[in-house]
Structure formats: C-alpha cells, structure tokens
C-alpha cells in the first residue's frame, strides 16, 4: 500500500479545527469528502488525495478518550445524504485532546475506521477505494502569560501540519494534523501520509 500525500483545502482545515476546539477535552468525529487530483507541492506536481470538505457527525457521543455514533439511524441518514448529493467519502477524521493528545493512530482508531468502511460497504456497495484516509488532530489548550494576536498560523512539521490558533488574547490551541492510510482489506497495512495545505 502506498501512502499517497494528502492535500487539505483551507476551508476543510478550518472546519476541522473549529470542530475540535468547539468540543475541546472531548473527541469529535466526521467524514472527509474529496478526490484524487494533481497539485503542485513545492516545485513539482504530485498526485494527492485532495480533501475538499468535511461533515461533522452531530449525534455522536463525545468523551475525553473516545467518540462513537450515538444514533446509528442518524449516522446512516448522514451517509445517505452525502451519497445522494454525489459527495465522495474518502475517509474520516477525529481528534485526540490533552492529555490523550498523541498524533499517532491507535489500534482502536484503526478498528473503528475499518468498522466505518464495513458499514459504508454494507449500505452503499463500497468506498470505491481500497484504502481509508484517517486524519487525526491532536489538540492542547495553551494559556499564555503575555497577550497574543488572535488568528491562525499553519506550518509544515515532519509530515504533519502544526496549527496554532489564538482564540483570545491569552488563550490558544496547539494542533497537530496527521494523516494515515488504512488498508480496508482484512488487516492491511497502516501508513502515515504527508499532509499539505495552502494558507
């Protein structure tokens, strides 16, 4: 399995960041909408998975170290809505909040993603791809001693993105965004991908 690079649109990145800050200290969960495309990354064109949009599951049960579908009928309605609008689900995302804020994917994360794939295959006949993309946002709140300017700064950081969001003069959030390709067949491999954006 190759780990195709991942490009996250600025709009999708901002939406993911907002959803994790909204429920800070609890996990959140949603799906990624995208397609394979060619993008200029640095000085050359690359074939990437381009994440254009996200959908946050509204009825999920959100806890400090786990998230799951609280209403299976609502989850299925959301998937049916996305399919009817011809939006291609290419994966999912969730967050790990402090003190569980690792940006690594866990065995439980992989099994949860594979269960999502099984449900999509049961309902819709498959993803149309052999791999599931899982984006993890690890987030930690920062209380600053000195006043900071509100805003968002995004930097590349060892295959990941590092996003620093200052929401109030003395409060901010340090967020690492990482992406993993999960083989959907049996116990296929898990590979970390490089994540890019334009901001």
Explain this structure:
The protein has 199 residues and is an alpha+beta fold. The chain has one domain (5-196): 3-Layer(aba) Sandwich (Cytidine Deaminase, domain 2). Helix content is 22%, strand content 48%. It is built from three helices and twelve strands, in the order βαββββαβαββββββ. It has helices spanning 10-22, 72-84, 107-124; strands at 5-8, 29-41, 44-56, 60-63, 66-69, 89-97, 131-143, 151-157, 160-168, 171-183, 190-193, 195-196. The strands form two sheets. Strands 1, 2, 3, 6, 7, 8, 9, 10, 11 and 12 form a ten-stranded mixed β-sheet that branches. It has a two-stranded antiparallel ribbon with strand order 4-5. Strand 10 and strand 11 form a beta hairpin. The longest helix has 18 residues, at 107-124. The protein is globular. The two termini are 30 Å apart. The model has no long low-confidence stretch (mean pLDDT 87).
Helix/strand-derived category reads alpha+beta
Roughly how many Å is the radius of gyration? 16 Å
Q: Could you tell me the CATH topology label.
A: Cytidine Deaminase, domain 2
Mean of pLDDT: 87
CATH architectural name:
3-Layer(aba) Sandwich
- Helix-strand pattern: EHEEEEHEHEEEEEE
Task: Summarize the entry for a quick read.
The protein is of the alpha+beta class and 199 residues long.
